[in-house]
Amino acid sequence: MLTLIGRRLAAAIPSVIGVVVVTFVLTRALPGDPAAYFAGPNADAKAIAEIRTALGLDRSLPEQFVRYVGDLLRGDLGQSLSTGRPVLVELASRLPASLELTLLGLVISLAIALPLGILAATRPNSWVDHLCRVIVTLGVSMPTFFTGLVLVYVFYFLLGWSPAPLGRLDAFFSSPPDRTGLYLVDSLLAGDAETFVAAAGQLVLPAATLAIFTLAPLARMTRASMLAVLSADFIRTARASGLSGGTVVFAYAFRNAMLPVVTTLGMVFSFLLGANVLVEKVFAWPGIGSYAIEALIAADYAPIQGFVLTMALLYVVLNLSIDLLYGIIDPRLEPAA
Amino acid sequence: MSELLRVENLSVAFRTRGGIVRALETVSFSIARGETVALVGESGSGKSVTAYAAMGILDPAGQVTGGRIVFDGIDLTEASEREIEDLRGREMSMIFQNPRAALNPIRRIGTQIADVLLRHGNIRRADAPAEAVRLLAQVGIPDPARRSRAYPFELSGGMCQRVMIAIALACAPSLLIADEPTTGLDVTTQAVAMDLVRDLARERQMATLLITHDLALASEYCDRVVVMHAGHVVESGPVAELLAAPRHPYTARLLAATPRPGIALGDLAAIPGELPDLRRAAAGVCRFAGRCDRRRDDCAGSLPPIPPGPLHDAACWNPL
Ligand SMILES: Nc1ncnc2c1ncn2[C@@H]1O[C@H](COP(=O)(O)OP(=O)(O)OP(=O)(O)O)[C@@H](O)[C@H]1O
Ligand SMILES: [Mg+2]
Fold this sequence. Notes:
The complex is a heterodimer.
Chain A: H1 2-29, H2 34-39, H3 45-55, H4 61-73, H5 87-122, H6 127-140, H7 144-158, H8 183-189, H9 193-230, H10 233-240, H11 245-282, H12 288-297, H13 301-329
Helix pairs in contact in A: 1-13, 5-6, 5-9, 5-11, 6-9, 7-9, 7-11, 8-9, 9-11, 10-11, 11-12, 11-13, 12-13
Chain B: E1 3-16, E2 19-32, E3 36-40, H1 47-55, E4 62-71, E5 74-75, H2 81-87, E6 92-95, H3 99-102, H4 109-119, H5 128-138, H6 144-147, H7 157-169, E7 175-179, H8 187-204, E8 207-212, H9 215-221, E9 224-229, E10 232-238, H10 239-244, H11 249-256, E11 313-314
Parallel strand pairs in B: 3-8, 3-9, 6-7, 7-8
Antiparallel strand pairs in B: 1-2, 1-4, 4-5, 9-10, 10-11
Helix pairs in contact in B: 4-5, 5-7, 7-8
The structure holds adenosine-5'-triphosphate and magnesium ion.
Adenosine-5'-triphosphate (ATP) binds at residues 14, 16, 21, 23, 41, 43-49, 59, 61-62, 213, 278 of chain B.
């Protein structure tokens, strides 16, 4: 197991290097002059030139690159020009917000998609099966920001059931003591039920938006994969041995059907990391997605580079987890012991 | 000998996109306790469907449209799903062709055996693994304690079939249905697997329904033969008598198409024609008539099916 993890991590190194190079080049190719942006509209050419020197932007690209890599190796992602704070600190404080949202979205999605897919597969042509088909068709045709806006319109504006879509906590609440950075977990750890409820209330709509986005592929894959497995020979053996319906569906069919679902889960997760950017904007969510957008608008290099690098590392971790999950589910994939 | 399984006028139909397939029509036969009966017929004749119907594991598209299946005095066509589930694996079990695919690929074989043992009770959870190892030893798996922790992909095809046999016999059933258990195994492994089934069956007074299209295999291991063609039982009787003097032209054809010692492969006659389309076949009429060289004008009339029982009988207007 450990060697597998080691090998996977080693295999990821070239792609991380690639990402470092590409983000560096891309951010430099962005339109706009950060020095001019920061000098302000009234600055003269001399002031802009001074700022440019201060930022090291007057040096050649290779020189800038070497300095950038040197900083990275020391764990320095640079400073955000717009806030003046270190990018690493800002990302670290915003990442939990994004992770909490994304993970909750996935959990909700799985909690609906898996039972739905299983029921649809075990009862073909029943109402559950039809419901599954409708959801799958609707789900793929709705872009996330649109779903998000509709949810806000209906549940906040029309019905007034949900709090204003303005971040992780209502202004009346202070954030729970920071342990994991996930408000739901932290408020539970602190035994603060009110904050928990308030944080959950803020999370419901954006998480539901992400859940709706991912529901379709997960439910469809679960259904298709269960259908395929349920018609396999070994299911017939299980039935011929008198194993009860529940054992057949869960211990025999479901575990075997999980492999393609896990693959889809990995893909969906990586789509989500992208979709997050828009959803965070709609719900004023202080995550790394909205951070990246603001930085992009300000032509602020360091945060963008930091964001892309964070995403790349998340992908590496994600793929590694998927591989490990695969190995746990399917003994045929375990490297020879 | 007392009767264990009695299939009486069993009809099964499948709803398909192309129409209703009448896969079985008034099929009757019986098996006594401890008896070994062969169910033979070419591919598509309805052997597996008969077995699945008896086990109650037809796919959802298939339905028993008539007849009775009486197992040990219980009419399975009337019994609840729950009652049949309790019988499966305990009183009647089944082994399949392609043993590797018939085992759960990601579950240890010992666990798969334990699943069946635990399902049918009379064993404590803690004792199940040891009992699984004992069963593996009984079907001749070397080093059973280690092998019980193996996955099917780590075993050969022959080993997998032994595991299947161990699963099927775990609860000492009174009937074993073996659906082409040797297809996909090489010749020596075939003989070993069949000998194993026969020896275990004798030891436990277990009845066996051996499904095969190999008449040589049937003649070697079985007491009686039931011949099927296109969803009908066309002939049944004691093995020696039926093979020596077949009465139905189809059985005769089947025999002529079976390699035997002393007959060169070139002399084997293929069976002319194809199985009729089961969606269009008229009810109660000989389905072999279209391929038969002994056909007479009255062959289009409805044919009384063979009743279940040990007597030699053929469903034919113009028997040999
Ligand atoms: N699920 C199904 N749906 C529709 N028709 C089916 C289904 N299963 C079996 N049949 C039909 O029933 C007939 C008998 O099939 P069966 O599998 O019993 O043949 P068999 O005698 O076991 O052949 P083989 O030697 O190839 O196993 C076939 O003509 C087939 O078309
Ligand atoms: Mg078959």
